[in-house]
Design brief:
Low-confidence stretches of chain B: 355-361
Number of strands of chain A: 16
Strand content of chain B: under 5%
Oligomer: heterotrimer
Largest sheet of chain B: 2 strands, antiparallel
Radius of gyration of chain B: 22 Å
Largest interface: B-C, 57 and 55 residues
Order of helices and strands of chain B: EHHHHHHHHHHHHHHHE
Distance between the termini of chain B: 20 Å
Strand content of chain A: 15-25%
Chains: A alpha/beta (357), B mainly alpha (361), C mainly alpha (304)
Strand order of the largest sheet of chain B: 1-2
CATH class of the largest domain in chain B: Mainly Alpha
Order of helices and strands of chain A: HEHEEHEHEEHEHEHEHEEHEEHEEHE
Chain lengths: 357, 361, 304
Amino acid sequence: MKKLIIALAASAALMGGFASSAQAQDKTKVCFIYVGSKTDGGWTQAHDIGRQELQTHFGDKIETPFLESVPEGPDAERAIERMARSGCALIYTTSFGFMDATIKVAEKFPDVKFEHATGFKAAENVSTYNARFYEGRYIQGQIAAKMSKKGLAGYIASFPIPEVVMGINAFVLGAQSINPEFKLKVVWANTWFDPGKEADAAKALVDQGVDILTQHTDTTAPMQVAAERGIFAFGQASDMIAAGPKTQLTAIVDTWGAYYIKRTQALLDGNWKSEQIWDGLKDGILTMAPYTNMPDDVKAMAEETEAKIKSGELHPFTGPVKKQDGTEWLAQGEKSEDGVLLGMNFYVAGVDDKLPQ
Amino acid sequence: MRIELQKRAQVSTLFSMLSPLLALVLTLFFGGIMFWMLGKDPLDALYSFFVEPLLEVWSLHELAIKAAPLILIAVGLSVCFRSNNWNIGAEGQFTIGAITGSILPVLYPEWHSPMILPLMLIMGMIGGGLYAGIPALLKTRFNTNEILTSLMLVYIAQLYLDWLTRGPWRDPQGYNFPQTKAFVPEAVLPEILDSGRAHLAIVFALVAAVVIWFMMRFMMKGFQVSVLGQSERAGRFAGFSARRMVWFSMLLSGAFAGLAGISEVSGSIGHLQPAISPGYGFTAIIVAFLGRLNPLGIIASGFVLALTYLGGEAAQLSIGISDKVSRVFQGLLLFFVLSCDTLIHYRIRLVRNQTAGGAHA
Amino acid sequence: MLEAILLTVITAATPLVIASLGELVTERSGVLNLGVEGMMIMGAVIAFAATQATGSPYLGVVAGIVAGAVFSLLFGFLTLTLVANQVATGLALTILGLGLSGQIGESFVGQPGIKLQPIAIPLLSDIPFVGSLLFRQDLIFYLSIALVVGIHWFLFRSRTGLKMRAIGDNHASAHALGINVIRTRYLAVMFGGACAGLAGAQLSLVYTPQWVENMTGGRGWIALALVVFASWRPIRVLAGGYLFGAVTIGQLHAQALGIGIPSQFLSALPYAATIVVLIIISHNRRTTLINTPASLGKPFVPER
């Protein structure tokens, strides 16, 4: 035991002195901070896969340390500051709740670059990045309208933030572009991640007669329920085909890897600058999982819509669109501004739910 | 072979001091083995757990920030637990304290006044106290078990906060994201030193600990707490009211938890949001017991527990030990501390099986 | 539709009932183990792992039970042999279980699980409505019902059960009567662990056949609450579990119907309902006191 203590003291002196600062210099550190576990099967895992792709791409040139399961709040500020102090050149903070903490730490460390996912506050050394997931949801809506016999789909939602509301609206608009009478039922699970609750919500929706399920929560539980009840469903965040080989129509897959590689390259080249990035299908920041379990004509339609969105020919939020209360939101041919989408707190017509205000 | 305990004639002072050290050594030893089995250098791992967070000034500040709510809540809980009132809903009282304390800066964001901060703190304490008053009322009036009611009220408080921050209290300029307006500078708990983020909460925590220690040791109220906690009957003979003690201990611990809540929101976060606590109210229960329900012991245990959180982070970052391993390690530490405390009250002997006699059930 | 909703309620309530029954036995012997959540999640991960390894969910169920029981021994050793504080040890057990299960389960995330299939009981399962509800269920559901009946019989009709209740009410006099307090309590703690493990297995093999971290999602705490709610009586545990399940599922249906009450309030309903029912039950001071194990949570060291 005594030896251990001596060794401890010795290593303390050694590392505290110079060892830690010496090794940090040859490799560029690109660091990640996660709100969940890196194997959560959803949001955080998608970021971690991106991180691994980044590491493989640059090999020995960079290091990619990460902190997982960091609670939003004061813990986040400490965790980010620890990263900044440990020699990270670029820090990705991958949850909306890290926004203010990121900004605060960034002020203290002007030489470190920060990129915050899904937020709206930027600075000289803070970029924001996000993906236009609604593009994928529009395609899903169209598929749902074709595949649903009842014209009624169920949506398992997490929390009423703009990102989620935007997704619901895009889904409904996609569906209504095929079947104007299409209706959507929404259940708020009040969690991002609880297989039991998600499964219960899925079952409740199916029992109320929906014959297509889609989700904005992270586990595959709703997909399993859909498989059991013999209806179709859409995957979220990653390809969930393994959970429903005969059930999944397609899934929105978060593919952050290419983005991380692009930005890290810019950092290494010395031309990284603060930007507010909101990429879509065309940039590859999200991709559609293979269109499966549907007739060829539906598949062809989905592929065509995807191509049109990529080329810019189709914007999912194009008028005429009415709000739920019947007032006009977008006139014929009018496209929504990004700012409205990012702060979205209203439903479009056809959603059978009242948005929590 | 089996283990047999023998009650010591009196509490062992030697082991009171030695047992935490013994626990630490055991944790280091078994933790080291665990890290070694995971293919990490045990010395590196232990170093980042226990030493690295203590080397830099900013990190010491962070330690104080993390320890403050734990100590403050645990001190209040120690009074509850000593008087046999099982308030395990401090997390909810923390949340409600944060909400009631935030009423002024959220609803009157234009009000700049030095009065605002003291008012916020008082309102936070009142809110937390009243929320703890619900289980107290139910216990004294309807004889309802407070473990259950206080726990259920945690979920209700969290959902209420969730609704507030996503609904009526949401910042209209915040793109409808779930958080309130940032507090005005007058409503932010000041930092105590220029060298880091640590704010007044740690001062509140230390003062509370000393005051409660003094009360328990030298005041009639403290005596009442101990007597009623040991035996309600004995307390009744002495003319103490168990019913009033339920109220006293619950309101006190609720107020402390509420103060911790508003301090955390005002000092560390700067606005109200759905997630304000990584389970402080529950962790504080462990802190209270690790500190042997003694307010001064709680100061020590609060810092130790805070250190394991910071250490877990450091270990994750510098040598890639996963967050789950950190939690296992935390569990190990707790188990060793709890089991070593046995030595204070008991002598442990190994007994051969054949000597065991007596009837078996 | 009613049938489908009730099936959902049964699935949601079963793990609560089972874990709660186990804790009830533990508490009846005078031991308060707050580590249900930790034992449950260990059961869930081990049951899933064993199922993936062997391909048989039945072996998974067995593994889950064993895992819960073994894990509870840790609690037993600390609180019974070393008389450590039960509240703190239970909480520590939960922390350890959540961490350990995450570590063990890391490689299983994302793997589709194998579901424990229902077993139709001949003849009975043909009864309309009731048949498909109660007699075309999986093994764990049948076990949950058997446990309710069995534990009720054990506690109130058997000699050993009587002795165990005696220990829970007054361990000193039980000891004086020659009952082995520590051994009985060890068995009661292990039984509680085994039940929690079984409840965990239900989560990862029936409820949602998959493994994800923290998948218990606080159900262990609800199970603990149910014991008090049921004032330590097995049949009331069953009722309480199903009531809680019904309110949980009911609020989701209320949402799907689009009634426009904020979902947070609906989500809070099960907890509020628990409190209200508890007040009604405990209002009668005498029945509560009769059922509460008097030496619950108090350490016991045999005097020699």
